[in-house]
Amino acid sequence: TLSSGIIGIEVYFPQTVVSLKELEKFDGVSQGKYTIGLGQDNMSFCGDREDVISIAMTVLDSLVSKYGISYGDIGRLEVGTETIIDKSKSVKTALMQLFESCGNTEVEGLDTTNACYGGTQALFNTLYWLESPYWNGKYGVVVMADIAVYAPGPARPTGGCGAVALLLGKGKEVKLIPEVQLRATHMENTYDFFKPNLSSEYPTVDGAKTISCYLRALDTCYSRFIHRAEGLTKQDNFSLQDIDYIVFHAPFHKMVQKSFARLLFNDFKRDPENTFFKDVQQFGNISMEASYSDKDLEKAFVTLSKALYEEKCAPGTFLAKNIGNSYTASLYGNLACLINEKGNDLMNKRIVLFSYGSGLASSMFSLKVIQSVQPIAQKLDMRTRLSSRIWMNPEDFTKTLQLREQRYGQMDYSPSNSIDSLLPGTFYLEQVNSIGCRKYNRK
Ligand code: ACO
């Protein structure tokens, strides 16, 4: 058994946000396409004052101050991101400027990149460090930070922006601990979402393929996870019922509902006689392959899973509905959201996480709550922060993305957006010099 795990979590999202209802009108698409079809309410975005480094600095500094630790107490810092602004220099090295005043330069860890999954690998690596003879007694921190922007078109409303910092350590302070035996991974070579165009911030994306890859990865991880869970619990019918809460990587909200329903379909395939499944018997003979494109099946299992979904999954979904996809930060923001919503109710509960990054890498793993997470919830104060954001109209959102296009790869400039909308304590980009060095300031 492990003794290392999560002590604290901090989340950051930009102050600027656009309503997807308004964006539907502005884009001239049918009413409900983004809000019902994708299930999203609002989308966070930032202008040219914030970049992946600044949002990572903001969330890390906020974690350090809220948890009353010093930069000198951190022995390892890893970053998960897929927002590339330099092909060589890691975001992690940029974060080292925050350590300067306390003189701590002995901090291992760099960036890990694979679409939305990098943060998960960074988390696993930091846990390995904590459990290894190389551990130097200090905290480990993992920062996940991304700015998700898409070219105009159907993928654009699935953008977003956010950053998460996890404080990891060993011993008495640990609140969430991984169940070592309960982890399953599936990786393979796919081209569903990727960024081959190095002169653009936008990905190349085959939307339908991303969804089928995600669901296939989910099926594979779940079946391996169940196999291990049955070994661990010595039972032969482990199912969703044995999971208290589940959080998913959330590209858009509808995907989370469908993923939850998909797990129930997997349970049905394993235990079709169970009376719980009496109304979906007609799907008994469908092959896994055919099941991905069967809309009737999807609908039937979304309906059947409604009550379970509300209980086990919904509490971890409102952050992503309100900020959009934050790639590597999405899953861990959802974990924070669950903690924010449920607080002490999570005591002794099993939380299962599903991480997916196109290309593809995926894992399903479990965290057990061993100590009250109420202090984390209090520090997050997520609902207040979400409701005090600044609403921008779709015209300004579109102009801002055009400005970001112009800034991508540009050198020798000072950002033109005002810093008025930033909250005190937020880090922002002050200048990019003629050879591409970036200078930051703190509001
Ligand atoms: N009212 C209600 N629902 C509507 C409306 C409307 N007016 N119009 C459309 N819809 C529904 C559709 O019926 C469909 O529902 P269904 O999924 O239940 O069948 C849903 O909205 C989506 O509409 P589509 O036409 O199928 O797809 P669209 O062209 O809008 O593209 C997509 C959606 C593929 C998700 C696109 O936004 C995309 O490519 N996003 C980026 C990739 C992504 O996020 N992939 C997920 C995993 S990988 C990752 O995390 C990046």
CATH fold name of the largest domain, please? Answer: Peroxisomal Thiolase, Chain A, domain 1
* Count of distinct structural domains: 2
Bound molecules: acetyl coenzyme *A
Distance between the termini: 43 Å
The level-1 CATH class of the largest domain: Alpha Beta
Name the CATH superfamily classification of the largest domain.
Answer: Thiolase/Chalcone synthase
CATH hierarchy: architecture of the largest domain = 3-Layer(aba) Sandwich
Overall 3D form: globular
Strand order of the largest sheet: 1-7-6-4-5
The profile of the biggest β sheet is:
5 strands, mixed
- The parts where pLDDT drops under 50 for at least 5 residues are none
Structural class: alpha/beta
* Cα radius of gyration in angstroms: 21 Å
- Strand content is 15-25%
Q: So how many helices?
A: 15
Binned, the helix content reads 25-40%
Strands, total number? 16
Q: Mean pLDDT, as a whole number?
A: 97
Pathway: Metabolic intermediate biosynthesis; (R)-mevalonate biosynthesis; (R)-mevalonate from acetyl-CoA: step 2/3
Function: Catalyzes the condensation of acetyl-CoA with acetoacetyl-CoA to form HMG-CoA.
EC number: 2.3.3.10
InterPro entries: HMG_CoA_synt_C_dom (IPR013746), HMG_CoA_synth_N (IPR013528), HMG_CoA_synthase_euk (IPR010122), Thiolase-like (IPR016039)
